[in-house]
């Protein structure tokens, strides 16, 4: 039986448990479990990190730990009983663990490794704490380290800031909000700004001296030198180096490294230097021989200097190499460092080119104890401490120091009878009173142990030497008296074995007889002469002599006349000895009572450091004098005491305050002093008002706190001694003193008077007196003193008076004092404090201090442990609420709305004040109970006051919710804030219901309430879904889900509104929708009924939901804009669909209403919008601009225009799309996109408001700006034709305004665009069909097919790879067939990609002769609606011998919803048409294409447009070789046999046509060979001969002996002088117009190759559809082969995906290298060659021969072929057979120009229709060929070529322009003409048209018009203009009755005939809803 556990509640898993038993819970070692029940060795419970999964596990696997259970029962929480730091470490490390792994995934290696080290370190520290063997101090250090590392990690991982007190986490419920804020702020400030250290230290480590001329030992001394004052700042640090320049004692690190300690911040400046002096120890001269002298001297070597400021910027770890300089003359040695600093170059030079001192220098910051902790290694290995000269900036009590520094400055010596100057050396000794040398007390500096003597430098031959050597004499204090220093002078001879001869001495005593030490400063000492053998052992003999010239007796003329002198400078740094005689006189006052007065007067002049040295002695002296002579010296002693007390206020001596406190407590013995102190203090206070000079009185009052300490301690001592006598007298004295104080405080004065300043001084020190008064008076008494004293201050004070600020400071200290903490005194002082605070807050002044006071007050209010509140505390809260709540709310509003100050320090203070006031408000509200709220609300006298109060509260709460209110990692503070807010709102909502409903309804209050509620729910810190599970669990346990609580409150309040709900419709729809987006099911359950309610009320009021719909849509879009790719918003949007789905569905509710249909329509609209917005959000979160983003934006833009009619949204998305295009450098598409907005505007002067980035301007100005921008982008996109039209429109506007300046510019711009058309190259783009199948695609792509315009140079493989990169999860389909329903419904992504051929519709320009290809290229690839794709297949039984018999072509024509290019690079396919081309028609097309190619090449060769003849050679070779080997014979076998003719009688005309084409080809080949012979180079003659021979074989195989007459006539001339005749009587291809028809048909794949081959040779081995290769199958085995799709291996797709990709070689200027496969098939027999030279076998990709660039890259080429089955409706101006016949006379005028090779005349052959035509979409049926007077030349069905005339010019043609969006495209009416042009084909046979006369009449009938699907270059319409028609871009909705004007007229051509647009609209083009014109507002 399972029994609930009582004590076994918490455990840790010891070993992993798989949980294989029934209900077993799998456990991992280290998991923590909470135990619920127990049964026979098994526990039941859950793992804490996943509390939802419960199960059983063995007891033996669990280590139990003590735990505390909270909330016992179903929702109990278990916390282990352990150190809170351990608990925090455990939970934090678990949280870090998951995030740490993510760092690795995100490739943040640096943080990953740093965090790993910190986690390991924390684990080690955790073990130490758990073991429990640490001392208290060590435990404290470890916890400090742990918390520091936890905080670091939290900060790095962007986790929350943890409030702590003494290393432990703080529970926000257990402390005041104000206290919590202070803790958070303290930790935040600590994190933000590290306090700069005031103390600095310099670490120096000597490495080596590098020099070429070493060989002697060296001494190196360092010291810090002040270049500004020219004095040393520190003592010297000495290092000895050996002869190699390395440290002499390398094992003793303390002798080669030092720390210059106690440098102040003022010492880190540019003119403070590290000075290094280097002394060599050896011979007198550096170059002397070794054996000359064995005595060693200290001689100058060099000096180096470096500025300390350089170390602040340098890398501390780098070693420094200091340059060493030597002085030019030794006389300058003493100041060489100054010369180097001053850069006096003439006085020093480099001691050697390679000489340098290597040292490590590093500046360290912080006090010395901190350094010992942080740089343990430095102190462990040993370091020498080098002190400052003098005390540091802060003197610490207890510091012991007694150092005497002497500097050997200079000397003046006589020659002593010698001819040259002396070499003087000084030896220094320290001797005691007995004349004994003190051992070890002479030191050169730190780093060297003390010695018995010191030897100075020797300066060569110098009787006035200047040494400037400093030595240190650390003599103990007790040895100072009687000791002296002796200086012995010796001459060092360089001869006589280097003896040192004594010739004089000097001495100086260290202490004078009166006890004063040798005064600091320079002393001129007397040099006493002596002989070499003079004994100085008996010092008594010379100590009686005078030692200094300053104190010589007047009668000592002998010594005064002595010219020899020696100067030293002394400096004493001692904490025990003094040089001050006045100090000594005061301390020995009993010896000289008569000097007391003088001594007390001079005390103020004594240096403070001397006083603090003898602080206790001085105080004893003062109180001793007071006790003995109180009447006489009381005032003087009081003043001296005040001076000493104020001295300790100085920062330098502030650490001596504890010394004085200790003195008062333990050593002070003046039991009677209190009387004199009170008396003198009162005397001063009474004279304040009359005194002229207040300075001294202010000094007295400044010291009043310590004076009271002395008074109280003196009284206590007196009471102890007398048993409490005179108690009342003492009280009376104190009361009198306070009476005097209150009197002087009550004095009012205008402005800043001396009395006011004195009052301020007293108020500053007054709070310090409370604690002393409490020692003798009760709490209530002291509180009374304070209240009355503060009340005595003047009530009316000027706002700028300093007294007000000081008064607040006084109150602040009062509130923080022990007095206020006591509840008894608090009830007395609280009214005073509240009154002052209220006044200041009302006047908005001294807010910083007010916040501080308020914070301190509220932090004292605490609840009892059981949650109850004491009555006294409740009254206190009531008082504060009554006095300050309203004014506090106003203050927060004021300071929040103020602009933030500029300076960072001021801004920080501003934020602190705001934060503190907010914390105060929260604390106050948290302390308020029901009773407080009731009293507060009842206190309002009127509804207006209550209304204002509620508005203030709601507004302040909205401010508190702002994200910038607290730093982002203050989650704890935000949760506390929200908890207080929701509690308060629940209280106030009752007041709202009771007072502001029904007749008293107030919209503003209710609106403010709802607005606050919505903002509250949407706060980021309450979105629990974004938190980790552990954090979410903690928040839910502590506060619950506050969003749901607030949502329930909203619902409740909404239900109470009744008919007033209408006031909030539609205003609250957006906010409530935002709440619904929160992914919280309970919240949705509460909120969705409100929407139903709104719709119901809106229906009642207006009968529709227009407002609701508009608001919903606006809000959805704005939410999208706010997210900016934020993951949180994406999650919100993903969760909105359930708004209309599984929850209490709005749909279900609506179905029960009378307004069901309109409601469902609304939901459908919003749902569709939501799908698009979701797609938009998903796309926009990606970093790069890709087609998905653009397509998604287009989809959304169209939706806003066509379905929602939201013009402003539409325009916004136009600009978003425009920006995307610009970013992707789609300039043409960008132009078309911006054109959508341009077309909404008119040329009017209406003012437009500021909108997006447009300023306020007129509509004309904005349209002009848009025109110029669009022209610029068309120019960048090389779509110059479109730019020209806009230039003309702008020019007309300028002309109408007579703005000739701009008109001139516009005409020049137009001219430049014409130049660019003719001069610049454009790339011809490829087009690709892409199918997106499967449910995983975004909505706007799902199960749709598109045609996409490729990027420049982008071929099929590159496009496929790009698409697969954009959709990395997509699967590439392996076939081109339409997918079935399983693919459509699959839960995956399938991509189907193949290339398609554009079918241009603008045929007029393309059919004209003489139009350069540069111009034609634009019309071939722009404004394309239709695209073609051919797929070969065999119908019936395949003849293995001749597969042409059964080879059919399935031709698919795709019609788009909008022409390409347009506002996007891809558009959806609107209609598919499938037509089957019979084998015979296929053969006709192939041969026509080849003939066309041959003519083109022959013409180019004749006109010398080719750089070489190779293309013609290869083409001839390919055709002739194929024909000889059976190419044309295969066609003969297939179609000329009797069986075929008998079985297909309807194909008789076509067979005749095929035969004619064969004869024609033979004739062209003959002529081509003649041209080839003329131009062929010599080395290719054998090939030419072979071709001629093979041609004769070909003719004989065709049975041709002589060509028919119409063939021989050769009516179309060549340029080589062939006769030119026209036979218009023969209706054939050779007629003039037919000649034009021929001219427009170039061989389609001359310069193209397929880009879709999968083989490695894909770029070369491609199929040349029209027989470019030399294969014999090329001409006669013509299968319409698509290119093989190439898909990367990781996306699958076999090579059989076929497509009719436009040849990839288009636009490639040089293709010669691709001819290498041209001969490969030539040598193969028909059987050996590939089955089809055109289509690859689906199973075996064919090796394709390369395509070739034909001719010169700058010359135009003929047009690609146009197939009969493929003809689609041409534009009204496009060429047709009818129009050819009608316009023949106009063509004959230009016949003199060479057009194409001669074409034999041929008779008319009727053409039958294509069989089995079929269409896959409704709409116009497919058309089949008609019987026509002149059969057109059809292209190869295998070539993805347009049916109109597409240039094969090698001129590079780019991706020109973009079409108009489906939104902007006008419903151009299409002609439904009853008569079809001859070139069009219908699906069923039609009767042939009436026979045409052989001669073409000169009268030109109007050609039959077809619908103009694509206006050139975009729809251009005539406008009424008296000057001339201005072509303008069509608007979004264009009247169908307007006629389109001609294309832009060309200078050389006049248009014939007019163009009209039929009024019948195409039924499949939806007419968009017209937009309401709101542009004037935009």
Outline the structure in words.
With 1978 residues, the chain is of the alpha+beta class. The protein contains 62 helices and 45 strands. Strands 1, 2, 3, 4, 5 and 6 form a 6-stranded antiparallel beta sheet that branches. A 6-stranded antiparallel β-barrel has the order 34-35-40-39-38-37. Strands 18-21-11-15-22 form a 5-stranded mixed beta sheet, with no helix packed on it. Helix 17 packs parallel to helix 20 (727-745), helix 24 (802-816) packs parallel to helix 27 and helix 35 packs parallel to helix 37 (1081-1102). The longest helix is centred in the last third of the chain and has 28 residues, at 1548-1575.
Strand-helix topology:
Blueprint: E1 3-4, E2 10-13, E3 32-39, E4 42-47, E5 50-58, E6 62-65, E7 67-70, E8 77-80, H1 84-105, H2 109-131, H3 136-156, E9 164-165, E10 168-169, H4 177-192, E11 199-210, E12 217-226, E13 231-232, E14 237-241, E15 257-264, E16 272-282, E17 297-307, H5 308-313, E18 319-323, E19 325-327, H6 336-342, E20 348-350, E21 356-365, H7 368-374, H8 376-380, E22 384-386, E23 402-412, E24 424-431, E25 453-455, E26 466-473, E27 484-492, E28 500-509, E29 521-526, E30 528-529, H9 540-543, H10 557-561, E31 565-574, H11 581-587, H12 596-602, H13 608-613, H14 615-628, H15 630-647, H16 657-667, H17 673-686, H18 695-702, H19 704-722, H20 727-745, H21 754-765, H22 770-773, H23 779-791, H24 802-816, H25 818-821, H26 823-843, H27 847-859, H28 871-897, H29 904-927, H30 930-938, H31 943-961, H32 971-995, H33 1003-1017, H34 1029-1039, H35 1042-1057, H36 1069-1076, H37 1081-1102, H38 1106-1123, H39 1127-1134, H40 1146-1151, H41 1156-1180, H42 1187-1203, H43 1207-1223, H44 1227-1238, E32 1247-1248, E33 1257-1258, H45 1259-1276, H46 1280-1296, H47 1300-1319, ...
Parallel strand pairs: 15-22, 36-37
Antiparallel strand pairs: 1-3, 2-3, 2-6, 3-4, 4-5, 7-8, 9-10, 11-15, 11-21, 12-13, 12-14, 12-16, 16-17, 18-21, 19-20, 23-26, 23-31, 24-25, 24-27, 27-28, 28-30, 29-31, 32-33, 34-35, 34-37, 35-40, 37-38, 38-39, 39-40, 40-43, 41-42, 44-45
Helix pairs in contact: 1-2, 1-3, 2-3, 4-29, 11-12, 14-15, 17-19, 17-20, 18-21, 20-23, 21-24, 23-26, 24-27, 26-28, 27-29, 28-29, 28-31, 29-32, 31-32, 31-33, 32-35, 33-35, 33-36, 35-37, 36-37, 36-38, 38-41, 41-42, 42-43, 43-44, 44-45, 45-46, 46-47, 52-53, 52-56, 53-56, 53-57, 56-57
């Amino acid at each position: 039986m399972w029994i609930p556990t009582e004590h076994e509640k918490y455990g840790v898993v010891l070993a992993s448990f798989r949980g294989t038993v029934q209900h077993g819970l799998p456990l991992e070692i280290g998991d923590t479990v909470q135990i619920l029940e127990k049964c026979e060795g098994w526990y039941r419970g859950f793992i804490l990190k996943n509390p939802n999964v419960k199960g059983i596990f063995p007891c033996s696997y669990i280590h139990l730990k003590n735990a505390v259970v909270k909330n016992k029962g179903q929702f109990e929480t278990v916390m282990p009983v352990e150190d809170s730091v351990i608990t925090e470490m455990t939970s934090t490390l678990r949280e870090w663990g998951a995030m740490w792994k993510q760092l690795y995934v995100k490739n943040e290696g640096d943080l990953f490794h740093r965090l790993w080290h910190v986690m390991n370190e924390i684990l080690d520290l955790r073990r130490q704490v758990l073991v429990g063997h640490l001392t208290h101090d060590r435990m404290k250090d470890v916890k400090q380290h742990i918390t520091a590392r936890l905080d670091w990690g939290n900060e790095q991982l962007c986790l929350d800031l943890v409030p702590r007190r003494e290393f432990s986490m703080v529970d926000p419920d257990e402390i005041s909000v104000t206290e919590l804020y202070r803790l958070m702020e303290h930790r935040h400030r600590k994190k933000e700004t590290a306090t700069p250290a005031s103390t600095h230290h310099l670490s120096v480590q000597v490495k080596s001296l590098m020099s070429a001329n070493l060989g002697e030992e060296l001494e190196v001394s360092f010291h810090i030198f002040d270049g500004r004052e020219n004095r040393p700042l520190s003592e010297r640090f000495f290092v000895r180096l050996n002869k190699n320049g390395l440290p002499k004692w390398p094992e003793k690190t303390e002798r080669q490294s030092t720390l210059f300690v106690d440098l102040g911040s003022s010492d880190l400046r540019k003119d403070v230097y590290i000075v290094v002096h280097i002394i060599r120890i050896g011979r007198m001269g550096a170059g002397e021989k070794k054996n000359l002298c064995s005595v060693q001297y200290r001689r100058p070597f060099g000096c180096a200097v470096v500025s300390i400021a350089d170390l602040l910027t340098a890398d501390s770890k780098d070693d420094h190499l200091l340059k060493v300089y030597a002085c030019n003359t030794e006389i300058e040695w003493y100041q060489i460092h100054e010369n180097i600093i001053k850069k006096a170059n003439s006085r020093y030079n480099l001691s050697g080119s390679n000489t340098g001192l290597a040292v490590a220098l590093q500046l360290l910051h912080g006090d010395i104890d901190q350094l010992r902790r942080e740089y343990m290694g430095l102190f462990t290995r040993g370091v020498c401490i080098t002190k400052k000269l003098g005390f540091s900036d802060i003197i610490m009590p207890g510091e012991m120091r007694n150092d005497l520094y002497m500097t050997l400055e200079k000397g003046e010596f006589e020659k002593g009878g010698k001819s040259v100057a002396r070499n003087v050396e000084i030896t220094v000794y320290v001797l005691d009173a007995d004349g004994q040398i003190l051992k070890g007390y002479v030191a050169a500096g730190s780093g060297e142990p003390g010695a018995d003597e010191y030897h100075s430098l020797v300066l060569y031959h110098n009787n006035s030497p200047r040494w400037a050597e400093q030595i240190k004499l650390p003599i103990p204090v007790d040895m100072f008296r009687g000791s002296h220093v002796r200086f012995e002078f010796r001459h060092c001879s360089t001869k006589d074995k280097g003896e040192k001869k004594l010739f004089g001495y000097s001495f100086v005593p260290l202490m004078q007889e009166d006890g004063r030490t040798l005064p600091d400063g320079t002393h001129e000492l007397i040099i006493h002469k002596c002989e070499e053998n003079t004994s100085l052992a008996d010092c008594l003999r010379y100590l009686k002599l005078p030692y200094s010239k300053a104190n010589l007796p007047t009668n000592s003329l002998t010594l005064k006349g002595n010219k020899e002198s020696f100067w030293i400078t002394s400096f004493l740094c001692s904490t025990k000895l003094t040089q001050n005689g006045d100090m000594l006189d005061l301390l020995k006052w009993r010896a000289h009572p008569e000097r007391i007065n003088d001594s007390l007067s001079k005390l103020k002049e004594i240096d403070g450091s001397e006083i603090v040295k003898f602080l206790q002695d001085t105080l004893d002296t003062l109180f001793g004098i007071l006790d003995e002579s109180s009447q006489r010296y009381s005032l003087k002693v009081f003043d001296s005491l005040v001076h000493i007390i104020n001295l300790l206020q100085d920062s330098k001596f502030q650490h001596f305050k504890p010394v004085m406190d200790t003195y008062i407590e333990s050593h002070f013995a003046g039991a009677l002093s209190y009387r004199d102190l009170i008396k003198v203090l009162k005397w001063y206070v009474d004279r304040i008002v009359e005194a002229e000079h207040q300075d001294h009185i202010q000094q007295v009052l400044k010291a009043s706190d310590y004076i009271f300490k002395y008074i109280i301690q003196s009284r206590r001592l007196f009471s102890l001694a007398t048993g409490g006598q005179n108690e009342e007298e003492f009280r009376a004295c104190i009361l009198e003193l306070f009476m005097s104080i209150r009197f002087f405080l009550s004095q009012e004065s205008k402005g800043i008077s001396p009395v006011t300043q004195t009052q301020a001084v007293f108020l500053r020190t007054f709070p310090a007196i409370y604690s002393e008064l409490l020692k003798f008076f009760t709490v209530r008494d002291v509180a009374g003193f304070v209240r009355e004293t503060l009340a005595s201050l003047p009530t009316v004070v000027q706002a700028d008076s300093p007294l007000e600020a000081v008064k607040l400071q006084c109150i602040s200290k009062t509130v923080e004092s022990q007095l206020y903490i006591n509840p008894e005194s608090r009830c007395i002082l609280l009214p005073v404090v509240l009154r002052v605070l209220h006044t200041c807050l009302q006047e908005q002044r001294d807010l910083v201090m007010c916040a501080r006071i308020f914070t301190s007050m509220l932090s004292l209010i605490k609840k009892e442990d059981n949650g109850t509140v004491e009555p006294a505390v409740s009254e206190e809260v009531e008082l504060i609420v009554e006095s300050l709540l309203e004014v506090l709310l106003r203050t927060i509003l004021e300071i929040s709305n103020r602009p933030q100050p500029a300076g960072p320090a001021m801004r920080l203070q501003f934020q602190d004040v705001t934060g503190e006031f907010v914390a105060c408000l929260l604390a106050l509200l948290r302390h308020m109970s029901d009773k407080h709220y009731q009293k507060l609300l009842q206190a309002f006298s009127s509804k207006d006051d209550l209304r204002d109060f509620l508005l203030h509260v709601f507004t302040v709460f909205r401010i508190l919710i702002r994200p910038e209110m607290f730093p982002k990692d203050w989650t704890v503070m935000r949760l506390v804030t929200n908890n207080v807010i929701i509690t308060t709102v629940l209280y106030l909502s009752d007041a709202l219901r009771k007072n502001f409903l029904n007749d008293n309804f107030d919209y503003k209050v209710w609106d403010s309430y709802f607005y606050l509620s919505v903002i509250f729910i949407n706060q980021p810190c309450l979105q629990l879904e974004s938190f980790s599970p552990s954090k979410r669990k903690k928040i839910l346990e502590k506060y619950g889900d506050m969003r749901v609580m607030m949502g329930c409150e909203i619902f409740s309040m909404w239900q109470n509104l009744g008919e007033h709900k209408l006031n909030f419709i539609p205003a609250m729809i957006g906010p409530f929708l935002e709440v619904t987006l929160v992914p919280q099911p309970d919240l949705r359950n509460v909120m969705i009924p409100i929407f139903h309610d709104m719709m119901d009320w809106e229906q009642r009021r207006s009968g529709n939901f227009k407002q609701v719909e508009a608001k919903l849509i606006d809000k959805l879009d704005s939410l999208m804009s706010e997210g900016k790719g934020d993951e949180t918003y994406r999650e919100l949007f993903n969760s909105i669909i359930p708004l209309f789905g599984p929850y209490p569905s709005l749909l279900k509710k609506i179905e029960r209403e009378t307004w069901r249909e309109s409601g469902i329509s609304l939901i459908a609209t919003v749902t569709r919008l939501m799908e698009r917005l979701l797609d938009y959000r998903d796309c926009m979160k990606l970093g790069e601009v890709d087609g998905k983003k653009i397509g998604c934006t287009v989809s959304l833009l169209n939706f806003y225009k066509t379905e929602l009619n939201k013009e402003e949204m539409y325009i916004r998305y136009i600009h978003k799309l425009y920006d995307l295009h610009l970013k992707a450098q789609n300039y043409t598409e960008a132009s078309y996109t911006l054109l959508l907005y341009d077309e909404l505007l008119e040329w009017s002067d209406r003012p437009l408001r500021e909108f997006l980035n447009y300023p306020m301007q007129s509509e004309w100005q904005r349209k002009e700006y848009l025109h110029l921008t669009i022209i610029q982008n068309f120019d960048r996109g090389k779509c110059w034709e479109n730019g020209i039209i806009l230039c003309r429109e702008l020019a007309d506007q300028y002309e109408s305004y007579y703005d000739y300046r701009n008109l001139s510019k516009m005409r020049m711009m137009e001219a430049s665009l014409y130049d660019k058309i003719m001069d610049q190259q454009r790339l011809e783009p490829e087009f690709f069909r892409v199918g997106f199948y499967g449910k995983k695609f975004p909505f706007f792509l799902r199960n749709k097919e598109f045609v996409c315009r490729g990027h420049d140079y982008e071929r099929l493989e590159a496009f496929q790879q790009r698409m697969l990169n954009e959709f990395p999860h997509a699967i590439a389909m392996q076939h081109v067939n339409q997918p079935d329903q399983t693919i459509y419904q699959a839960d995956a992504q399938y991509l189907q990609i193949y290339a398609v051929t554009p079918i241009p519709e603008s045929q007029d320009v393309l059919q004209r002769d003489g139009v350069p290809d540069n111009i034609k290229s634009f019309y071939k690839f722009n404004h394309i609606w239709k695209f073609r794709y051919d797929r070969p297949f065999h119908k019936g039984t395949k003849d293995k011998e001749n597969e042409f018999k059964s080879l059919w072509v399935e031709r698919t024509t795709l019609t788009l919803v909008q022409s390409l290019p347009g506002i996007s690079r891809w558009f959806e396919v609107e209609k598919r048409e499938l037509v089957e081309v019979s084998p015979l028609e296929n053969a006709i097309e192939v041969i026509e294409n080849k003939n066309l190619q041959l003519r083109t090449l022959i013409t180019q060769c004749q006109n010398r447009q080719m750089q070489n003849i190779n293309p013609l050679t290869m083409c001839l070779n390919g055709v002739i070789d194929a024909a000889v080997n059976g190419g044309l014979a295969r066609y003969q076998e297939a179609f000329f046999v009797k069986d075929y003719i008998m079985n297909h009688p309807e194909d008789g005309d076509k067979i005749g046509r095929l035969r004619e084409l064969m004869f024609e080809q033979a004739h062209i080949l003959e002529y081509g060979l003649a041209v080839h012979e003329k131009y062929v180079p010599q080395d290719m003659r054998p090939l030419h001969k072979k071709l001629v021979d093979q041609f004769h074989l070909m003719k004989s195989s065709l049975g041709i002996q002589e060509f028919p007459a119409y063939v021989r006539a050769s009516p179309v001339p060549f340029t080589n002088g062939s006769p030119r005749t026209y036979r218009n009587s023969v209706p054939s291809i050779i007629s003039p117009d037919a000649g034009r028809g021929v001219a427009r048909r170039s061989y389609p794949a001359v310069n193209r190759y397929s880009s879709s081959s999968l083989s490695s040779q894909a770029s070369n081995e491609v199929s040349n559809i029209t027989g470019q290769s030399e294969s014999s199958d090329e001409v006669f085995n013509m299968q319409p082969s698509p290119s093989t799709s190439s898909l990367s291996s990781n996306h699958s797709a076999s090579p059989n995906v076929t497509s009719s990709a436009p040849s990839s070689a288009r636009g490639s200027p040089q293709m010669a290298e691709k001819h290498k496969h041209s001969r490969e098939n030539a040598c193969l027999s028909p059987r050996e060659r590939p089955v089809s030279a055109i289509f690859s076998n689906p199973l075996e990709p064919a090796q394709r021969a390369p395509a070739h660039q034909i001719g010169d890259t700058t010359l135009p080429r003929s047009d690609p072929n146009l197939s009969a089955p493929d003809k689609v409706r041409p534009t009204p101006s496009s060429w047709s057979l009818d129009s050819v016949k009608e316009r023949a006379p106009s063509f004959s005028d230009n016949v003199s120009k060479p057009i194409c090779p001669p074409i034999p005349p041929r008779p008319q052959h009727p053409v039958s229709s294509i069989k089995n035509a079929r269409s896959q979409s409704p709409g116009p049926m497919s058309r089949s060929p008609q019987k026509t007077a002149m059969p057109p030349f059809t292209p190869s069905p295998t070539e993805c070529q347009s049916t109109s005339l597409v240039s094969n010019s090698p001129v590079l043609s780019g991706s020109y322009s973009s079409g108009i969006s489906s939104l902007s495209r006008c419903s151009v009416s299409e002609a439904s003409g009853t008569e079809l042009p001859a070139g069009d084909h219908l699906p069923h046979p039609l009767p042939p048209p009436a026979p045409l006369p052989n001669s073409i009449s000169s009268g030109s009938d109007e050609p039959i018009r077809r619908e103009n699907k694509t206006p050139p270059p975009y729809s251009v319409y005539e406008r009424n203009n008296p000057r001339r028609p201005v072509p303008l871009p069509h608007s979004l909705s264009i009247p169908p009755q307007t006629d389109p004007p001609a294309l832009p007229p060309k200078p050389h051509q006049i248009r014939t005939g007019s163009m009209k647009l039929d009024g019948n609209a195409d039924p499949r083009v939806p007419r968009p809803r017209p937009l309401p014109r709101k542009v004037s507002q935009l």
